[in-house]
């Protein structure tokens, strides 16, 4: 057969494998300028498909196997062959996956056996870079931590940066199995930022002045305190970072400032203009209205014996103290974390549990701080006994249950302050809080008794420190509600005899239910938002306002109830391990409710296995409270194999050869001519290789069956108006554009003979706003689902000088609806 053939384009129409091919448009993509204005759109474009081997039942069978296919969010043409198969489970508002489950391909297993963990992680990040919309993960992600859990799984937390500058709120965690193969990634990342410069114009000094003016204060250098540096007001902390707000990206100075011992504020200042982009209060309080904390008195954990005293609940507690010069200090140095060599006693212990007294002064600049002392082993200070006991038991809980060495995980000193007065005028204080360094207890005023009287109060506040040292959940909106929820969860597990919080310290005239919060029933006897103690029980009652830092105390009732349901189903011992695994190894600073669900499910699977009763219990609990995610999305589907032989379709453009299309075997031999019709554009081929459709030199649309023994050519449209066509993969739908400046794409259903036209527009970021500078579309291609048509189009804008600016862009047009088996809505 013919051997010497000029092959302008080779089409691998492999019946066993499907390929997405770029539409070539020859030398010039501009259509003949036959009109000066856009044509009036016609409503139909008829194509005669009689005689074509269209398999009318193919549409259903092929689409069933491709139900989960979705268009990629970014094209990465330079990436090497994928090492993994991925499934996306949930996407954020920016379209970036929240959780990707991955399965290593066989060749990957051989590769990872010879690689370091760092190399495996880097290769995996490159593999998912297209899904994450990251240009170069090796430059944009830096490791924060790496740990191996009790199940032998390795968790690598990474921070995204751009040109060396941290991207705020963008952390991911890569999870490796025991064979050092990546099996998942989760977190909240951002697409690669588009900033020209990361050099700030605004100095740090000017930024601080802006914040001081906004707060109406100046920042103190330190406080005078007996306790030394641990009791000083922290100086401002600053970090240059990239901050995203309302879809816009800024270079910002992030300042954490402490006007006094209690208050902590987070500011984000535009590093070029000095504008305050965002700010929020970051002292973790217990209750929005009264700043309450949770309390309890019974626990299975006992501190060491040394002295004793009655607590606020009139229970005698065994306490451990430090003795020097005939004085006993309420400082516990018996824990394994205590470092005697580095400690300066009694003011600066390292690895101790210490209780200090503000003596009814507010935590303000210049406040005096006093040790709690006794000249005997009997303690007659019930508030101090309660606070010290709370800290002791809470430390033991985290140490014995999760092998966590203190709040920071590294044996840091635990400090409690008692007798804290209201910062707004002194007197009784209806609050307990964690300020990032220590726990503070007020003595109540209206709604509460002394807050140190609640064990779950102390557990709650210490848990805020643990949360900050692990996931560091941002204290606002949904991430802040998760923060509050975990503090409630661990507070309730430290004081685990019921599901109520702060029931030992509330005044019932303010909380008629007898508790501040109820994890079993978050409505807590109330009927609506504003009733004391009321929280939403599920997402139908979710609070969307700006109060309470976006509802951190209000909306925490929803994940609280989910935990109650999980723990009731599988037991508290299993539930707390699953949730700690989720907090420590899956959640990140910007995690939302859906991330919590995904993290808990994954943590349950880590400990108990995929499909286990524990995983099912978590699924059911989150479904019940309305935190759902739907089905996962396969990002690399196994396309159904088509029966048939492989071949090559070739186009010969030489004018001395009457034939144009040839079919041959995959060795480039045994060429058989199919037609002598001159072909104007690249043919479009059905997935099973049964026929091809093309535009001719005369601008008609023809088709030819790809049967080497009996090729048959037919004319689908004899009108000489066509410029390009594209056949859907299943061969049932045809897309076409005319050879004039008309912004219309025509879609024909070759099965029914019906057709519809779609007028193009350019979508914008504003909801419902479209622009109409599209002149005409050109190259066309279908996605595998048969619902979307990808096209490029010429656009024209007029600049300020009245000159035209032409540009091409690529769009995806929804032309078909597989569920209704009818034309799509035309969204782009």
Structural class: alpha+beta
Overall pLDDT metric: 83
Q: What CATH architecture of the largest domain would you give?
A: Roll
Broad shape: elongated
Give the amount of beta strand, in percent. 25-35%
If you consult CATH, what is the topology of the largest domain?
Elastase, domain 1
Under CATH at level 1, the class of the largest domain stands as Alpha Beta
Task: Give the helices and strands, then pairings.
Layout: E1 9-12, H1 58-64, E2 84-88, E3 99-104, H2 106-112, H3 117-127, H4 129-132, H5 137-140, E4 141-148, E5 154-162, E6 165-176, E7 182-188, H6 204-215, E8 237-245, E9 248-257, E10 265-270, E11 276-281, E12 284-285, E13 307-310, E14 316-319, E15 322-324, E16 327-329, E17 331-332, E18 353-361, E19 370-371, E20 373-374, E21 378-379, H7 382-402, E22 414-420, E23 432-434, E24 439-442, H8 455-469, H9 477-494, E25 500-501, E26 517-518, H10 547-551, H11 557-570, H12 572-585, H13 593-608, H14 613-625, E27 633-634, E28 648-651, E29 661-664, E30 672-675, E31 684-685, E32 691-695, E33 701-705, E34 713-717, E35 722-727, E36 733-738, E37 744-749, E38 755-759, E39 762-763, E40 770-771, E41 774-782, E42 788-798, E43 804-814, E44 816-817, E45 822-823
Parallel strand pairs: 6-8, 13-21, 18-22, 22-24
Antiparallel strand pairs: 1-28, 2-3, 2-27, 3-7, 4-5, 5-6, 6-7, 8-9, 9-10, 10-11, 12-23, 13-14, 15-16, 16-20, 17-18, 18-19, 23-24, 25-26, 28-29, 29-30, 31-32, 32-33, 33-34, 35-36, 36-37, 37-38, 39-40, 41-42, 42-43, 44-45
């Amino acid at each position: 057969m013919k051997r010497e053939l000029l092959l302008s384009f080779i089409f691998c129409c492999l019946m066993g494998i499907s390929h997405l091919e770029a539409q070539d448009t020859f030398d010039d993509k501009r259509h003949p300028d036959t009109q000066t204005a856009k044509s009036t759109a016609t409503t139909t474009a008829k194509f005669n498909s009689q005689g074509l081997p269209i398999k009318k039942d193919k549409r259903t069978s092929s689409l069933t196997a491709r139900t989960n296919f979705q268009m990629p969010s970014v094209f990465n043409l330079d990436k090497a062959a994928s090492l993994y198969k991925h499934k996306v489970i949930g996407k954020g508002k920016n379209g970036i996956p929240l959780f990707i489950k991955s399965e290593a391909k066989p060749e990957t297993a051989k590769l990872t056996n010879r690689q370091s963990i760092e190399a495996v992680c880097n290769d995996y990040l490159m593999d998912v870079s297209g899904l994450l919309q990251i240009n170069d993960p090796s430059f944009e992600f830096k490791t924060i931590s790496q740990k191996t859990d009790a199940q032998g799984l390795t968790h690598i937390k990474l921070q995204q940066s751009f040109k060396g500058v941290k991207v705020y709120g963008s952390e991911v965690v890569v999870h490796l199995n025991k064979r050092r193969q990546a099996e998942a990634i989760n977190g909240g990342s951002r697409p690669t930022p588009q900033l020209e410069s990361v050099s700030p114009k605004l100095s740090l000094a000017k930024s601080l002045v802006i914040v001081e003016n906004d707060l109406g204060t100046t920042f103190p250098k330190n406080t005078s305190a007996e306790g030394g540096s641990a009791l000083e007001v922290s100086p401002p902390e600053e970090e240059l970072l990239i901050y995203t707000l309302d879809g816009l990206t800024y270079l910002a100075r992030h300042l954490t400032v402490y006007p006094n011992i209690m208050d902590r504020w987070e500011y984000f200042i535009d590093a070029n203009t000095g504008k305050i982009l965002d700010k929020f209060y970051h002292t973790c309080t217990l209750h929005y209205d009264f700043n309450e904390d949770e309390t309890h008195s019974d626990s299975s954990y006992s501190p060491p014996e040394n002295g004793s005293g009655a607590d606020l609940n009139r229970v005698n507690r065994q306490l451990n103290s430090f003795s020097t010069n005939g004085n006993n200090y309420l400082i516990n140095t018996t824990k394994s974390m205590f470092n005697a060599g580095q400690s300066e006693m009694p003011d600066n212990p390292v690895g101790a549990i210490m209780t200090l007294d503000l003596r009814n002064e507010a935590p303000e600049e210049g406040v005096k701080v006093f040790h709690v002392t006794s000249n005997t082993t009997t303690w007659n200070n019930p508030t101090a006994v309660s606070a010290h006991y709370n800290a002791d038991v809470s430390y033991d809980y985290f140490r014995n249950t999760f092998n966590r060495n203190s709040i920071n995980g590294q044996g840091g000193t635990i400090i409690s302050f008692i007798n804290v007065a209201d910062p707004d005028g002194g007197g009784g204080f209806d609050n307990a809080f964690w300020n990032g360094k220590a726990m503070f207890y007020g003595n109540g005023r209206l709604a509460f008794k002394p807050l140190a009287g609640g064990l779950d109060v102390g557990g709650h506040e210490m848990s805020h420190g643990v949360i900050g040292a692990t996931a560091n959940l941002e204290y606002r909106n949904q991430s802040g509600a998760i923060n509050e929820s975990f503090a409630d969860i661990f507070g309730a597990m430290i004081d685990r005899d019921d599901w109520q919080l702060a029931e030992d310290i509330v005044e019932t005239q303010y909380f008629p239910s007898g508790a501040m919060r109820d994890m079993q029933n978050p409505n807590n006897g109330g009927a609506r938002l504003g009733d004391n103690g009321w929280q939403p029980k599920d997402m139908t009652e979710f609070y969307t306002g700006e109060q309470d830092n976006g509802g951190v105390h209000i909306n925490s009732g929803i994940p609280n109830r989910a935990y109650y349901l999980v723990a009731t189903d599988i037991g508290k011992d299993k539930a707390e391990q699953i949730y700690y695994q989720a907090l420590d190894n899956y959640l990140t600073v910007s995690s939302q409710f859906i991330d919590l669900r995904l993290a808990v499910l994954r943590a349950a699977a880590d400990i108990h296995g995929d499909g286990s009763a524990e995983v099912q219990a978590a699924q059911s609990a989150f479904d019940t409270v309305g935190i759902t995610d739907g089905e996962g999305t396969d990002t690399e589907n196994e396309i159904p194999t088509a029966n048939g032989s492989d071949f090559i379709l070739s186009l010969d453009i030489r004018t001395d050869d009457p034939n144009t299309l040839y079919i041959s075997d995959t060795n480039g031999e045994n060429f058989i001519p199919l037609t002598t019709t001159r072909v104007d554009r690249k043919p479009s081929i059905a997935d099973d290789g049964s026929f091809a459709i093309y535009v001719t030199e005369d601008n008609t649309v023809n088709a030819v069956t790809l049967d080497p023994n009996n090729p048959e050519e037919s004319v689908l449209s004899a009108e000489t108006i066509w410029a390009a066509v594209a056949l859907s993969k299943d061969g049932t739908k045809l897309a076409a554009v005319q050879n004039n400046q008309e912004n219309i794409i025509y879609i024909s259903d070759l099965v029914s003979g019906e057709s519809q036209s779609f007028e193009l527009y350019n979508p914008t970021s504003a909801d419902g706003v479209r622009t109409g500078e599209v002149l005409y579309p050109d190259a066309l291609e279908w996605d595998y689902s048969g619902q979307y048509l990808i096209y490029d189009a010429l656009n024209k804008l007029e600049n300020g000088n009245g000159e035209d600016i032409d540009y091409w862009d690529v769009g995806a047009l929804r032309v078909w609806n597989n569920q209704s088996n009818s034309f799509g809505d035309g969204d782009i």
